[in-house]
């Protein structure tokens, strides 16, 4: 937060300072017509409070279905708080994004269209319009971006932020809306593996959230940067950001949110990659307990995958094999094709390391059958793996070599594949 | 006992049975409730005073700026957990914008310290009167002197919190 001791001393004074007479400007000694025409902040506050309940009803209706949502939106017609209700519904819908991104996406589009009939921001006046069209449309665009990212469409998620920037600017944004755009675009850029731009955007959002004193949002930006640094292999830096995020979340209402579960999971992953296995296990356990206590069932899949990898890295191959085999068998809808592929590779490597070559070959054959289903289909690494299986020269080291190459590719590290025989 | 609670139970009993077997509802993440009375009645006048005293802006400008940042924070209500911090930062930005605008205007004015202000009366048309205001730039020596004087007055006249 920018320091200004002089300014802050006045804000903290026990009594409001008497103003110098010249400061009154045109307002004295005559009637201040402008001040009288200014809408009372108190009235606008009451409108905003009246909109809280209807905004929640919109979210409930979005969960229930299209007809219910249409009815909830029509129920707002003619209400003075309609703009605030649409605005708040868009801002509160991040819960819906996690529950059902398709419904969140549909809601975003409807809110955007509904906002067309709201008054525009009066950019020529010195005082802005409460809940103008542009503010609602900016928030609807951000909601669309979040929903697309949740569906795995990182490119679309970034594209959706662009109009949000324009709408925020038109609405007379004071910098906070732009920071929200930076945060969401930065998060999407991380998933798109555009790491330099993601880092720039997330750091810029962090600076503004901190300046505006919103620790919970600064915590999210810290968490986003931590995730970015895990993906780029900078685990020590990632830990610093995760720890800052945890401190922010612990003191805020996010302490019980799904974000905290994922944050703990990502922190444990960073510890594991640094070889700090005991700390990693303790943090995974904390994430698991936290996720169970708060009913974050959807996130338990990722924690189980992390724990399986931890067993693998510790050399507990039988335990790891059991865990990875379960993950593949369940083929959770939360798991991407790439995650299933890596689970199969880990399982095959475990089999090889404990000398079970028959089951290992079964896993690799399954990979060959599924090859066309994922983005690694044309990879020469998989080509060498399958050729070695046919030639009977496959072993645990080759599987590890292929897995590490594909994991780099998944994290956006571009390097040419060198067949193991040439490397050795 | 039947597990089909919709079968024969009266409504109240049905609800009770459902609630026994339904997962316990999780409390929604608590969003701190704003102390609106304090924000509006105590913090807003202080923001306006700080804008006038710290930056030499006119009270009318500061009232507009305060109005704008209050509307902005209300528009971000579900996102903002610390409204005072938000208002402070947003108001500082507004003041900074006003000062920049004044400096831009002042660049083409040979006498920036005297600004001709237009008074508005409800039914009497416009009256032009010169109103003495603080200099536009806080980089000037005279502005520093004004600030020092004001600061001394604040220190002497007000009981500041430790």
Q: What kind of oligomer do you see?
A: heterodimer
The major pleated sheet of chain B works out as:
2 strands, antiparallel
Unreliable spans of chain B are: 1-29, 110-146
Shape, per Cα inertia axes of chain B: elongated
Annotation keywords:
heterodimer, A: 424 residues, mainly alpha, Serine Threonine Protein Phosphatase 5, Tetratricopeptide repeat, 3 domains, elongated, B: 162 residues, two-stranded antiparallel ribbon, 5 helices, 2 strands, disordered N terminus
Strand-helix topology:
The complex is a heterodimer of chains A (424) and B (162).
Chain A: H1 5-11, H2 33-37, H3 41-64, H4 66-74, H5 82-92, H6 94-99, H7 101-114, H8 133-150, H9 154-170, H10 176-191, H11 195-211, H12 215-231, H13 235-250, H14 258-273, H15 277-293, H16 297-313, H17 317-330, H18 337-353, H19 357-370, H20 380-391, H21 396-410, H22 420-423
Helix pairs in contact in A: 3-4, 3-5, 5-7, 5-8, 7-8, 8-9, 8-10, 9-10, 10-11, 10-12, 11-12, 12-13, 12-14, 13-14, 14-15, 14-16, 15-16, 16-17, 17-18, 18-19, 18-21, 19-20, 20-21
Chain B: H1 11-21, H2 36-55, H3 59-75, H4 83-107, E1 114-120, E2 126-132, H5 141-157
Antiparallel strand pairs in B: 1-2
């Amino acid at each position: 937060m920018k320091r200004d001791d002089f300014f802050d001393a006045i804000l903290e004074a026990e009594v409001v300072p008497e103003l110098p007479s010249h400061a009154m400007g045109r307002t004295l000694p005559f009637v201040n017509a402008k001040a009288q025409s200014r809408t009372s902040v108190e009235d606008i506050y009451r409108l905003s409070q009246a909109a809280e309940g209807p905004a929640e009803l919109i979210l409930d209706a979005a969960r229930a279905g299209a007809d219910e949502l249409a009815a909830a939106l029509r129920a707002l017609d003619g209400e003075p708080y309609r703009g605030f209700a649409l605005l708040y519904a868009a801002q509160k819908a991040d819960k819906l994004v996690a529950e059902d991104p398709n419904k969140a996406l549909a809601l975003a589009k409807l809110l955007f269209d509904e906002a067309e009939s709201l008054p525009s921001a009066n950019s020529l006046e010195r005082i802005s319009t409460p809940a103008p069209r542009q503010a609602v449309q900016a928030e609807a665009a951000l909601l669309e971006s979040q929903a697309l990212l949740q569906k795995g469409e990182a490119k679309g998620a970034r594209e959706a932020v662009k109009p949000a920037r324009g709408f925020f600017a038109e609405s007379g944004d004071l910098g906070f809306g732009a920071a929200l755009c930076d945060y969401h675009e930065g998060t999407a850029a991380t998933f798109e593996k555009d790491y330099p731009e993601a880092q720039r955007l997330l750091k810029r959002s962090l600076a503004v959230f901190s300046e505006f004193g919103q620790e919970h949002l600064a915590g999210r930006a810290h968490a986003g940067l931590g995730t970015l640094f895990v993906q780029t292999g900078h685990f020590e830096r990632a830990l610093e950001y995760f720890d800052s995020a945890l401190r922010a979340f612990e003191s805020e209402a996010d302490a019980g949110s799904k974000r905290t579960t994922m944050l703990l999971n990502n922190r444990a992953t960073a510890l594991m990659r640094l070889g700090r296995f005991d700390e990693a296990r303790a943090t995974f356990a904390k994430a698991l307990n936290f996720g169970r206590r708060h009913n974050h069932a959807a996130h338990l899949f990722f924690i189980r995958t992390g724990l399986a990898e931890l067993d693998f890295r510790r050399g507990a191959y039988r335990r790891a094999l059991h865990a990875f085999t379960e993950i593949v068998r369940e083929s959770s809808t939360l798991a991407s094709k790439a995650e299933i592929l890596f689970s199969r590779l880990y399982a095959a490597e475990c089999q090889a390391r404990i000398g079970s070559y028959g089951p290992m070959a079964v896993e690799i054959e399954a990979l060959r059958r599924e090859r066309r289903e994922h983005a690694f289909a044309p990879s020469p690494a998989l080509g060498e793996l399958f050729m070695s299986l046919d030639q009977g020269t496959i072993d645990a080291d080759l599987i590890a070599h292929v897995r590490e190459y594909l994991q780099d590719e998944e994290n956006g590290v571009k390097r040419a594949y060198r067949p193991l025989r040439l490397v050795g | 006992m039947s597990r089909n609670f919709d079968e024969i139970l009266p409504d109240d009993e049905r609800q009770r049975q459902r609630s026994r077997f339904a997962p316990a509802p999780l409390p929604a993440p608590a969003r701190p409730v704003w102390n609106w009375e304090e924000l509006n009645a105590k913090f807003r006048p202080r923001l306006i005073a700080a804008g006038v005293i710290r930056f030499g802006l006119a009270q009318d400008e500061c009232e507009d700026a305060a109005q704008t940042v209050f509307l902005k924070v209300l528009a971000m209500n579900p996102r903002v957990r610390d409204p005072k911090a938000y208002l402070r930062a947003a108001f500082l930005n507004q003041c900074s914008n006003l000062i920049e605008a004044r400096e831009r205007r002042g660049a083409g004015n040979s006498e920036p310290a005297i600004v001709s202000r237009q008074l508005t009366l409800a039914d009497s048309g416009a009256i032009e009167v010169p109103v003495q205001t603080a200099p536009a730039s806080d980089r000037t020596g005279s502005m520093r002197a004004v600030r020092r004087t004001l600061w001394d007055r604040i220190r002497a006249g007000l009981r500041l919190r430790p």
